[in-house]
Design brief:
Length: 187
């Protein structure tokens, strides 16, 4: 992965609310916790984006984890920028940072609507792309070869119903029939 290191700490201020970020924490997360198949296939780019464009993964967050991040922000400590990828509709899907997202909502309060947040954007290298995929009980963006994009059904969170009802034989299920036993096979 190629990425340029900016200074260890960056700071933003919006309506008198200060936020400090530690960019290097993102690189530590990437090399220790990101899927191995991303290595060499994505780059990281840091930028400030409107808070309202962030799309949380919808995963469960522990209240203690949110409280810990909120305490860090209130104490003026640096937080890692959330790790995101761009969506087809211009939003930013959160891969890492759902607890920070909730803490940021509380910390920014009414200012969250027009605040800018520093994020680490995962950029797929040539030949790859992030596509939204639905897996039985949840959906997420996955890194796939772009040449296979024409053969996969793209599902975007903005198009998914809030509580999807799926038939037994939809486009993701293939009914299989057991092969007939051969005449010479013993049972």
């Amino acid at each position: 992965m190629s990425a340029t290191f900016r200074s260890e700490l960056t700071e933003t201020c919006h309506r008198g609310i200060r936020l400090r970020y530690s960019d290097n924490s993102v690189f530590r997360w990437f090399y220790a916790k990101a899927p191995c198949r991303w290595h060499g296939r994505v780059t990281l780019h840091f930028e400030d984006v409107p808070f309202g464009t962030l799309l949380p993964a919808g995963s469960w967050t522990h209240p203690d984890g949110v409280a810990n991040w909120l305490w860090r922000m209130q104490a003026g400590r640096a937080i890692p920028p959330p790790v995101v990828c761009r969506t087809r509709l211009g939003g930013f899907y959160l891969f890492d940072g759902n607890h920070r997202y909730e803490a940021l909502q509380e910390y920014l309060g009414e200012a969250a609507g027009d605040a800018s947040i520093r994020v680490a954007v995962l950029m797929a290298k040539q030949g790859y792309e992030f596509q939204y995929r639905y897996f039985d009980t949840y959906g997420t963006y996955v890194l796939v070869p772009s040449h296979g994009a024409a053969f996969t059904r793209k599902l975007w969170p903005e198009q998914e119903p809030a509580n999807p009802v799926r038939g037994i034989y939809d486009s993701r299920n293939l009914p299989l029939r057991a092969a007939a036993a051969s005449a010479g096979a013993s049972r």
